[in-house]
Design brief:
mainly alpha; 447 residues; 2 strands
């Protein structure tokens, strides 16, 4: 994929990551179904404990990759023979594979632990005297499900943006040092860079930038339970667990694939292709300068994008699944204390309709209830006027959101004027300035 540029490399990497979630999700689903069929939520807890029993092995294979990566960095800074770097790169590539296996175990166990804690949350609510069931047809539960499915994307966006901000500050600092002291670019010069400032940027960002994502994970179930009640929390947890598992798997495997692609190219596996497609990278001795080729640069771009995915967002989603569930268990009594689990909006929202069970329906048929008796007790049927009003309101809301999105994406008149005056016509059109007048030759008449 790198032969045709960074864009196709990123597309193939994303597709590989999404595809890699298929088999693990089926395996986890089979484990959940089997364990629950045999021993209920206790069986799911035992399954999670069984996966966590391999913790020592997972830690060993997970740490293997960073150790090899650091060894390669030390070898390069000490200016050792290039063959040493080649060996560390090969070990690091194997470390990425082992790390992916370890992350798979961690993600699977986090899903099972989150699901077991979800069951504990519902059980604790029932222990307070309330009869809580998870009904996806309930509007509050389904709304919480949608919000919970969105939270992993919000959380990942915050963590990746934090990595981008820290990287941007690091690049600016390094450029400042090069501009202030050009001797740093001279090999074997006695002047040394200011490493302490760069280390401070990384450590400060790693602590400060995690405040907002941590608050998002911890406050979401609390605010949801206090404001909207326990029904919304059950949907929130279900959506967060289901979405986090798949996103964590795809993020980890996507980043690992891009990293291995870069190492595969850097060790010279594609030198023949590079020499054929980019003759300018071949020096006078006939050796291909791999790192000067566009193929290698495309691989580096993919690796740069994949690092925050596999090292930040992916592993952090495991913590998100478990932390949201345990916080919900801890604050279950608080949720029930607010309008008996209805939340602050409880007095303004109709109670969930009671759904007749199979036994109740059988009893209804036994006492000769009419065949058209509704299965939902206490629910009101909306009239045609209400249905039409809801339909029109939803259509207007959708069209308004579309218009607002298009207006936000459209550049202002001042931007169009400034860009069209300062940039060539084709550049302005490439930037999306459609209102720039076309001043080329007249188009020939169609044949």
């Amino acid at each position: 994929a790198c032969r045709t540029g960074a864009a196709t490399n990123i597309i193939y990497g994303l597709a590989l990551g999404y595809k890699s979630a298929i088999v693990p999700v089926f395996v986890v689903a089979f484990i959940v179904f089997g364990a629950h069929s045999l021993a209920g939520f206790y069986g799911i807890s035992l399954a999670a404990l069984g996966m966590l029993a391999t913790l020592a092995t997972c830690l060993s294979i997970d740490v293997y990759g960073p150790v090899c990566d650091n060894a390669g960095g030390i070898a390069e800074m000490c200016e050792l023979h290039p063959s040493v770097r080649e060996k560390t790169d090969a070990l690091d590539a194997a470390g990425n594979t082992t790390a992916a296996i370890g992350k798979g175990f961690a993600i699977g166990s986090a899903c099972l632990v989150g699901l077991a804690l979800f069951g504990a949350f519902v059980t604790r609510l029932n222990d307070t005297g309330a009869k809580v069931t998870v009904d996806l047809l309930d509007p509050l539960t389904f709304a919480g499900l949608l919000v919970g499915s969105m939270l992993p994307y919000w959380f990942s966006a915050m963590t990746m943006k934090s990595v981008g901000k820290a990287a941007n500050e690091m690049v600016i600092e390094i450029k400042r040092q090069f501009d202030a002291n050009p001797n740093l670019l001279i090999p074997n010069h006695p002047d040394r860079p200011d490493y302490d400032t760069c280390i401070k940027i990384s450590t400060d960002a790693s602590l400060q930038e995690m405040i907002a994502p941590g608050a998002l994970v911890m406050l979401s179930p609390v605010l949801c339970g206090v404001c909207f009640g326990t029904r919304c929390v059950t949907g929130l947890l279900a959506g967060a667990i289901a979405s986090s598992v798949q996103m964590a798997i795809s993020s980890s495997n996507t980043g690992g694939a891009w990293d291995n692609a870069k190492k595969y190219i850097s060790k010279g596996a594609m030198d023949a292709v590079i020499g054929e497609e980019e003759p300018e990278t071949v020096d006078n001795t006939g050796k291909v300068q791999t790192k000067k080729s566009q193929i290698f640069k495309a691989a580096v771009t993919g690796d740069t994008v994949g690092d925050p995915l596999k090292d930040t967002s992916g592993p952090a989603l495991n913590i998100m699944m478990k932390l949201m569930a345990i916080i919900s268990v801890v604050f279950a009594e608080l949720f029930m204390a607010v309008n008996q689990g209805g939340g602050l909006i409880g007095p303004y929202v109709a109670a969930a309709p009671k759904v007749a069970t199979a036994a109740e329906l059988l009893l209804m048929n036994t006492v000769a209830m009419p065949a058209a008796a509704p299965a939902v007790v206490g629910s009101a049927v909306a009239g045609p006027t209400t249905i039409f009003a809801v339909f029109v309101g939803g259509a207007l809301l959708g069209m308004g959101a579309l218009a607002a999105g298009q207006r936000a994406a459209k550049p202002s008149a001042s931007t169009i004027k400034s860009v069209s005056l300062t940039e060539p016509l084709l550049v302005a059109r490439a930037a999306g300035i459609e209102s720039t007048p076309f001043q080329g030759a007249a188009r020939p008449a169609a044949c």
